[in-house]
Design brief:
The structure holds 2 protein chains of 2 kinds.
Chain A (H helix, E strand, L loop, with lengths): L2 H12 L3 E4 L3 H9 L5 E3 L7 H11 L5 E6 H6 L2 H9 L4 E7 L2 E2 L5 E2 L8 H8 L3 E5 L2 H13 L4 E6 L14 H17 L1
Parallel strand pairs in A: 1-2, 1-3, 3-4, 4-8, 7-8
Antiparallel strand pairs in A: 5-6
Helix pairs in contact in A: 1-2, 1-7
Chain B lengths: L4 H13 L4 E4 L6 H8 L5 E4 L3 H13 L6 E4 H6 L1 H9 L5 E6 L9 H16 L4 E4 L5 H15 L2 E6 L1 H4 L3
Parallel strand pairs in B: 1-2, 3-4, 4-6, 5-6
Helix pairs in contact in B: 1-2, 1-7, 3-5
The chains are: A alpha/beta, B alpha/beta.
């Protein structure tokens, strides 16, 4: 499965919700599908997209928060799974695109290219709902189920190590930050 | 354990007085009473972290959502947070209030705390993070609320160093 196709398949469902993505290919592909003021593209600070998503989910319990993570990023912050599991906010959906590669920096293999199983780590960390998908149909169905569900979910999607030719986004990172904050505060008041 | 009840309560009340409701932390000996007071307060949420760096991301998420957060940790935790402070907090101009127990300063008897103690202020200065010592319980509300005011106005991290004098009675 290509991540860009997986994102396109869930975009209509994802679009109304608060989204935090990691940088690089995931950010560029989501941006290409259509930016929204409540999408935040975390450039750098690798590993912390899920932590930021947890902070938002705990702060805005009435909103669904979707984190688009990657294998390399999650491996840098495995402790996030144990922290998320302790609180298990029901409004947090943690999607991990696992391409077994540091694709955005040249394709060096990550530990999931070897023996490491992120879904297994998520389960053993105590994430209440862990799902896996290898095809578009599986991914779309798991995403739909997780979004409708009432449990913190980590959804590990195995994707090809293929990304866009350019990571350019016509959105300055501070513009994204101020716009995102304003969008979240409007939801808080409403 | 001679953790100061007066000092701990003053820190908790100072956070409460300036509207902090979300507190990511990695607990440590000096902070156990502060952590317990926050945990027992139904209007505050304590997030126990595996590592301090996560707390920077969580506090940033809370800030962007309009919630007041404070990161509470030992000074060795600050050292662990250097990268996220640089590549999230500075990069995105996000205010961050940090309350840091200042181990390894004057009076320290544990050799393992001393290197972190020696490095704390040089690192804060190198990162251009404004900081103040909090040594007297009576000053807690003023120092914490002024730290928060500066962080929010400057969109910058600010640190309050919780001293031995405040938190330890030996």
């Amino acid at each position: 499965m290509l991540r860009s196709e997986a994102l396109a398949a869930i975009y209509p469902q994802l679009e109304p919700h608060i989204v935090v993505t990691i940088m690089g290919a995931v950010a560029a592909e989501l941006y290409a599908l259509g930016h929204r003021p409540h999408f935040f593209y975390m450039e750098h600070s690798m590993g912390l997209a899920s932590s930021m998503g947890l902070g938002i989910a705990l702060s805005l319990p009435e909103e669904k928060v979707i984190v688009l993570d990657g294998d390399g990023s999650l491996l840098m912050n495995l402790g996030t799974l144990t922290t998320m599991a302790q609180h298990s906010p029901r409004n947090l959906l943690h999607v991990v695109f696992d391409n077994a590669s540091f694709l955005s920096v040249g394709g060096y293999p990550t530990a999931t290219a070897g023996h490491t199983d992120l879904a297994g780590i998520a389960r053993a960390s105590g994430i209440p709902c862990v799902m896996e998908a290898s095809t578009i149909d599986e991914f779309k169905s798991a995403f739909t189920q997780a979004l409708a569900g009432e449990a913190l979910t980590t959804l590990v999607a195995r994707v090809e190590p293929v990304g866009p030719t350019s990571f350019h986004m016509d959105l300055a990172l501070l513009e994204n930050r101020f716009q995102f904050k304003r969008a979240l505060e409007a939801r808080r008041r409403s | 354990m001679p953790v100061s009840t007066t000092g701990s309560r003053a820190v908790y009340e100072a956070l409460k007085a300036c509207g902090v409701t979300l507190v990511p932390t990695v607990p440590e000996t000096w902070l156990v009473q502060v952590v317990r007071l926050i945990e027992e307060d139904p209007t505050m949420t304590m997030v126990h972290l595996a590592k301090e760096e996560e707390g920077v991301g969580i506090a940033a998420g809370a800030y962007l959502s309009g919630v007041n957060a404070a990161l509470i940790m030992q000074n060795h935790g600050l050292l662990a947070c250097i990268n996220p402070i640089v590549s999230l907090i500075f990069l995105y101009k996000i205010p961050l209030l940090m309350l840091i127990s200042y181990r390894g300063d004057f009076g320290e008897r544990d050799p393992w705390q001393t290197q972190g103690g020696l490095m704390t202020e040089p690192v804060l200065r190198a990162l251009n993070i404004p900081y103040r010592y909090l040594s007297r319980a009576a000053d807690a509300q003023r120092v914490v609320s002024e730290a928060r005011a500066l962080a929010n106005a400057a969109l910058h991290p600010v640190a309050v160093l919780l001293s031995r004098e405040l938190l330890w009675e030996d």
